[in-house]
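Problem: given the chain below (198 residues), write out its structure.
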Amino acid sequence: MITIIDYKSGNLKSISNGFKKIGEEFQITDDIDLISNAKHLVLPGVGAFGSAMENLEPFRKVIEEHVRDDKPFLGVCLGQQVLMGESEESSNVHGLDLFKGHCEYLPEGVKIPHMGWNRLDVVKKSPILEGVDKEYFYFVHSYHVIPDDDDIIAGTCDYGIDVVASLSQNNLFSTQFHPEKSGKAGLKILKNFVNIKE
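Solution.
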């Protein structure tokens, strides 16, 4: 059973349809007890860093405990960005700080937002990226993550700069792209996540 956190900032229908397509049971909930007992947690996200963190505050502790217990966790799009410590988008707002680093606005000279299909280059072995190197994924974002430690970068894409497309550390995973909107390759990532054991 996959548990999708409903914190009023995620594209719940889109991500749930992805799990539906692979035949995986899921629940969408804002119930702390259900989230606390989840085996696999998913944090989707659309919108602004600051408002997302305001909505996530009641869930901060249970998310931290889930990750500390090394249970599988997947952040998607804004769900990747809020895993960082901070973002230029919302100064003085503390992220979940589960990945050390920050978010920056995409640089001048590239089209903003980064919207459309881009090829994934896997740069580190990660269970969620098994079998998807050089596949194309769908991106929609204006900010990108800058981790303190390059060793947690699992995938990048070339958008005039190397954009961090995926992070991986123990059983904590994230993607800047939307796997649920990325066809067969995206569904493969969701299947990979489902198959990760605690």
